[in-house]
Design brief:
The protein is an alpha/beta fold. It has 2 domains: 8-12 and 265-395, Alpha-Beta Complex (Aspartate Aminotransferase, domain 1), CATH 3.90.1150.10; 20-261, Type I PLP-dependent aspartate aminotransferase-like (Major domain) (Aspartate Aminotransferase, domain 2), CATH 3.40.640.10. 38% of the residues lie in helices and 13% in strands. The protein is built from 12 helices and 13 strands. It has helices spanning 20-26, 43-63, 76-90, 106-117, 135-141, 164-174, 248-286, 313-320, 341-345, 350-354, 367-386, 389-395, and strands spanning 8-9, 70-73, 97-101, 121-125, 146-150, 177-181, 200-204, 215-219, 290-292, 303-308, 324-325, 327-328, 356-360. Strand 5 (146-150), helix 6 and strand 6 form a beta-alpha-beta unit. Helix 1 (20-26) packs antiparallel against helix 7 (248-286). It starts with 7 loop residues before the first strand and ends in a 13-residue tail after the last helix. Pyridoxal-5'-phosphate binds next to helix 3. The site of pyridoxal-5'-phosphate has 13 residues, from helix 3.
Length: 408
Amino acid sequence: MTNAKRQIYLDYQATTPLDPRVLEAMMPYFTNVFGNAASRNHPFGWKAEEAVEKAREQVAALIGADPKEIIFTSGATESDNLAIAGVAHFYKEKGNHIITTTIEHKAVLDTCKALEQEGFTVTYLPVGKDGVVTPAQVKDALTDKTILVTVMYANNEIGTIQPIKEIGAICRERGIFFHTDATQGIGKLPFNVDEFNVDLASFTAHKMYGPKGVGALYARRKNPRVRLAPIIHGGGHERGFRSGTLNVPGIVGFGKACEIAQTEWKKDYEHAKKLNERLLLKLRAELDELIINGSVEHRMPYNLNISFAYVEGESLLMGINDEIAVSSGSACTSASLEPSYVLRALGVTEDLAHTSIRFGFGRFTTEDEVDYAAKKIIGTVKRLREMSPLYEMAKEGIDLTKVQWSGH
Ligand SMILES: *Cc1c(COP(=O)(O)O)cnc(C)c1O
């Protein structure tokens, strides 16, 4: 009998492990093939450039784009900045209005905030209780000053999927550019830039079994052509959209990750769906008062976000995180004790937001890991609830909202 601790990773929305096939593809580009892809005068440069162009084709193929429409960046944060600030600055004579949602990634929200400081106007559309924005909301918010709509594909905290195809169609009809932060969707859900009416799309390698520090922005070249003011200057790499020496091994790995995703994403999807259902079934068999955050219908199977009522999220996390790696809806990372802004945007109460845990599944998660995690979570939640007077009162049928607390 061994007491060795396990390390179970259920945080696939934060990052994914590198697929060994990706690492293998990258290796030569750290050593033998080390040239600068911008070196035009010798084979070292030519080979690096050839590898980058092959990767560009692999990345483009995954989303139905032309390789010329792919701009390599340092990741989705930079891609979001380039897409939003790039369009805003290039088209500022045309209009100053941008539409987005309240549950976007900070890379989008903070870029919008920075643009507000410069005088742009941003509409932050609220989402419903299900964490989904409707195409009608977007349509109603458009003005003759709107130059860009940016709505994410799948949400990184609650896994909800937005109706981007429909939103894209509305924008196309009005001649307004549509950007989507598709970081959580590309390589894991269906996505095609033409079918989805997308003009700009951000994504990153490390959320799809590639390396960290490399991503891409898709920018449409015709019908309509999107022009962008660069945010990084110098040297004119990437057709002038993004200067800086290319991360050749990273780009090669990104390309390989895209190639694998193209043939295997459906398998990954079915695998995650099974694991997701398995975890939920096990938790529900032993625990009551579980609330799933975000639409059950419009969601990706790689994510399960649950509030464990009457259990303090931090205590739950501390009870399991010696062996189970997950994220919590209480932002213990920041100095404030503010719960997740995404959960708050759905109207989840502060209390319940603090009890939430995000589970993320992926290509390398096993059934055995899910079973082990379920057992540990169930044990911890039961132990914490035994110590909770509120849980006891609720079980005795006392309506906690009607209780007159002394000292108030
Ligand atoms: C992870 C993530 C990002 C940031 O990507 P980086 O490559 O880490 O900069 C942006 N948007 C979403 C939705 C994400 O999940």
